[in-house]
């Protein structure tokens, strides 16, 4: 029985816990329903409760903006213009993209909201969305907003630098504006893989009039760029000495020929001393002839080869170098074709890169 009782209590508490975790959203939905039913006096306490510092549950930035917008709209319908403008202004300070749909709100509410726009200068940049950008065919967009007309400068910077290059400079009106970028640097090259910042610098078009105390502002959205392309090939290394034939006769080769000639002469003299066949003529005379021929050939070879070029090897090496150069040229051509198809992978990034 005790176990059943504990289980029953636990199951009964589950809806309460779920409602507590989602209580801000539940209250805002109830307040919206009351607003739509024109039960403004009942909706106001709910919105004020969500905005109160004593509210016990978490409130997101978007929920605070929504509460201020509807509270301002309700107060305007009740004839409390100043309070309505105050809450509209609070919404715009938190989110410059905040707006009222003309199809759902009255002209007087829109006028109060416009008055709030004029009294506060706030700017915003929406977080970058993940994009696969082909610079040859498309562009990516950055969404910016100002509460009223302003002179703006939009820059792309490396995230750890204090300056960059502009992609838009000019005057804009209040509300949403999209700024395009093709992913190229001023040099025309693709943005390399790195972390970047889209920086919005703005100056109010109405200065400090209408209660607006801020005339300049800046904000940024950070994003990562990664180049994507097909795998590249490596070029072949230059031919080294081990890959080529010797293009000159070495001194040792010529000297070897000379020593061979001398060896032939010495061998002939040795054989002459041991030979005894008289029919072959005088052994010593024949040895002298052979020796002279050997020495002559050795000297001639030494004289013609030492330090001289080897044309057949030079030609063979030139063919090898030409073949290697042609192969590398083809590798570079294929790599260039692959790099020409590079796309940029854009992804949002939080904070500042060190």
Write the layout of secondary structure elements.
Layout: H1 2-21, H2 23-36, H3 40-51, H4 61-77, H5 81-94, H6 107-119, E1 123-125, E2 131-133, E3 140-146, E4 150-158, E5 165-172, E6 175-181, E7 194-204, E8 216-228, H7 251-274, H8 283-305, H9 311-339, E9 343-349
Antiparallel strand pairs: 1-3, 2-9, 3-6, 4-5, 4-7, 7-8, 8-9
Helix pairs in contact: 2-3, 2-4, 3-4, 4-5, 4-6, 5-6, 7-8
The overall pLDDT, averaged over residues, is 82
Largest sheet: 6 strands, antiparallel
Choose one word for the global shape. rod-shaped
Number of domains: 3
- Secondary-structure element series: HHHHHHEEEEEEEEHHHE
The helix/strand class is alpha+beta
Q: What's the count of strands? A: 9
The H-level CATH homologous superfamily of the largest domain, spelled out, is: Tetratricopeptide repeat domain
Identify the CATH class of the largest domain: Mainly Alpha
- Which CATH architecture of the largest domain is right? Alpha Horseshoe
**Radius of gyration, rounded?**
45 Å
> How many individual helices?
9
Q: What can you see in these coordinates?
A:
By secondary structure, the chain is an alpha+beta fold. It folds into three domains: 2-119, Alpha Horseshoe (Serine Threonine Protein Phosphatase 5, Tetratricopeptide repeat); 123-229 and 344-349, Immunoglobulin-like; 245-339, no CATH class. Helices cover 47% and strands 19% of the residues. It has nine helices and nine strands. The protein has helices spanning 2-21, 23-36, 40-51, 61-77, 81-94, 107-119, 251-274, 283-305, 311-339; strands at residues 123-125, 131-133, 140-146, 150-158, 165-172, 175-181, 194-204, 216-228, 343-349. A six-stranded antiparallel beta sheet has the order 2-9-8-7-4-5, with no helix packed on it. Strands 1-3-6 form a three-stranded antiparallel beta sheet, with no helix packed on it. Strand 4 and strand 5 (165-172) form a beta hairpin. Helix 2 (23-36) packs antiparallel against helix 3, helix 3 (40-51) packs antiparallel against helix 4 (61-77) and helix 4 (61-77) crosses helix 6 (107-119). It is rod-shaped, with a radius of gyration of 45 Å.
